[in-house]
Amino acid sequence: MKARALLLCMAIAAAVSACATTTSPTGRTQVVGGVSEAQLAQLGEQAFAQVRQQKPQSKDSRQTAYVRCVVASLVRQLPPDWQRLNWEVALFEDPETNAFALPGGKVGVYTGIFKVAKNQDELAGVVSHEIGHVIAHHHNERITRQMGAAGALQILSGLAGARYGEGVGNAVAQGGGMAAQAGLLLPNSRVQESEADVVGQQLMAKAGYDPRGAVALWQNMAAAGGARPPQWLSTHPDPASRLRELQARADGLLPAMEASRKAGNSPRCQ
To answer: Which residue intervals define the domain Peptidase M48 in the entry (predicted)?
Structure first.
């Protein structure tokens, strides 16, 4: 048992040694480095290619140009290192109200988003939120955290299996995985969602979009949604709390929007 535990600990120590502590755009302490930025970009590219294989892209050239216009106007306001990424945009034919951004500069939007994003400000609200996840290193942070949780479970299941048998070890791993997801990984995801709201709303105002568009977007989302899981088991913040925070920030970001427009950033995507 001691030899097995030692090997597990050594493997985990090797993985953790590559991690580093950094500060998120909102001042939150993050642990990242489970994978390199180059590896993340490669993973993002692979995931994007997979979605392209699985879902048909829209043949509506006007809507595709509209989405690309919004993405491009937001990307122009990113720091130079982020602007230099090979940003790609795809509009997928899918009725789900969804959009995503991946490491490496890949943005996907589902046509169903137009049910809740009814103008350029509202579309910028969802796209900037997704880009916020990327520039806040949320994918790296989440992968690093999952690696840590997986490593801890390997130790527990290994020790339990050596002491009580393989069946008990497997049960510990399965039960521990559920506990880690509910008590460790999902709360972190809610923090990331709230942080992406902050980063995204700031970005859209900097690009000249009305930050109140994010409020309208999530009001539309809430109206279109149905039953939802309890807040403690959700990867998204409570809708009412989210709307209050978005509204409070929107009022404070109006001067930034106005200054950006005076500087020539007046998006006209349609």
So the answer is: 62-249
Domain that holds residue 186: 2-262
Rounding to the nearest 10 degrees, give the CA dihedral for residues 262, 264, 265, 267.
110
Task: Tell me the whole-structure pTM to 2 decimals.
Answer: 0.78
Q: Is 37 a catalytic site residue? A: no
**Catalytic residue chosen out of the listed positions 37, 45, 88, 130:** 130
Question: Which carries the bigger pLDDT value, residue 5 or residue 194?
Answer: 194
Structure tokens at 52: 């392209």
The per-residue pLDDT for 44 is 86
Q: Residue 89 corresponds to which tokens in the numbers above?
A: 């945009």
Kindly state the DSSP code that residue 115 receives in the 8-state scheme.
G
Tokens coding 93 = 């034919």
Q: Are 28 and 189 in contact (CB under 8 A)?
A: no
Query: Which residues lie closer than 8 Å to 28 by C-beta, 6 or more apart?
Result: 191, 195
Query: Does some domain include residue 269?
Result: no
Confidence of residue 142 (pLDDT cuts 50, 70, 90): confident
- Of 118, 91, 96, the residue nearest 107 (C-alpha): 91
**Is residue 268 situated within a structural domain?**
no
Q: Which residue in this structure is represented by tokens 């913040």?
A: 237
Task: Give the chain's length.
Answer: 270
